[in-house]
Amino acid sequence: MDGNGELHAYDRRSPPRGVFSTPPAKVFFEKNLYTAIKEDGTRNVDLETGFRPLEHAASILIRTIIDAARQGVVHRLSLDDRNLLDAFLYFQWKRVPDSINRVVSRSDLKAFGIARLKEFEETTRPLTEDEKEKFEDPATWERIMKNARRDTIARGSTAIMQVLSGLVFNVVHIRNPKKAFIVGSHPVSKLHPAGEAQLNGARTELWLPVASDVAIAFTGSGKSQHVALWDGDQIRKVNQATAWGSSLIASRSPLLTRSLITHVGSRMHLVGLQSSGRGSIPSEFG
Q1: Which band of pLDDT confidence, cut at 50, 70 and 90, is reported for residue 5?
Q2: What pLDDT, on a 0 to 100 scale, did the predictor assign at position 98?
Q3: What whole-number percentage of the chain has pLDDT above 90?
Q4: Pairwise CA distance, residues 12 & 265, whole Å
Q5: Of 108, 127, 206, 266, whose Cβ has the fewest other Cβ atoms within 10 Å?
Q6: Residue 182: closest CA among 6, 4, 29, 9
């Protein structure tokens, strides 16, 4: 945040707005994102309420990690801490709209549903007039697509969680007061050299900025450590990666946000972001 407690944001979905100032609570927020809607119109908010304990516990842990990073050390994670951090990283990566849209668009989802209806009529029975009328209503498809996306978010992956648990935890602290990390609507960036996209690859990097001067970085190899970062080029690489996968970015500086406008959303169609050469992690990481 800047000195007035605001962020400076840019949304590629509304370019004429340009860079705008906003309180943190009003950015990266989508109402009822995790709410399921039943046929009778009632709402199921179990997933929304289920995320709250995870978010609360993670916020406390991350605050501790940030404080330690600013003291020049890596917070020693207990097993419970590591499990919590892995779960937070996983859902931060999976549940955001930018991530879901990257996997399947709303139009693709509707096309899939229409194809399944046709298949049902061909193999089971014709739709009744009431059913046809229901599926001709745009509100029906809106409800179906919203619930399908919500169900996708709710499902976890034991295999991915196992891979995450094996990655090396590091913290990066920017020591140059003129430099800062940005945050994005797709908060986790995956960087890897061309052709080495495995999540646990030796040169794969997962970045999660958690403050303007602190980021959590997971690597596929090496030892857990704290890195004090001064190099503006390396910071820029991380910020570009965040911008590439996000439809919305924000930072403490309007100049910083403005400098990344052309990068915002430029690689949202990619599942992993490729970096050239070794990547953006400083050489101290191995």
Answers
A1: confident
A2: 65
A3: 46
A4: 7
A5: 108
A6: 9
**Pairing of the two strands 183-184 and 248-251:** antiparallel
Q: Which of 155, 274, 171 is nearest to 213 (CA)?
A: 171
The label of the residue with tokens 């046709």 reads 118
3-state per-residue secondary structure call for the chain: CCCCCCEEEEECCCHHHCCEEECHHHCCCCCCCCCEECCCCCEECHHHHHHHHHHHHHHHHHHHHHHHHHCCCCCCCCHHHHHHHHHHHHHHHHCCHHHHHHHCCHHHHHHHHHHHHHHHHHHCCCCCHHHHHHHCCHHHHHHHHHHHHHHHHHCCCHHHHHHHHCCEEEEEEECCCCCCCCEECCCCEEEECCCCCCCCCCCCEEEEEEECCEEEEEECCCCCCEEEECCHHHHHHHHHHHHHCCCEEEECCHHHHHHCHHHCCCCCCCCCEECCCCCCCCHHHC
Average pLDDT, the chain: 84
Q: In this structure, what token pair is assigned to residue 160?
A: 């991915």
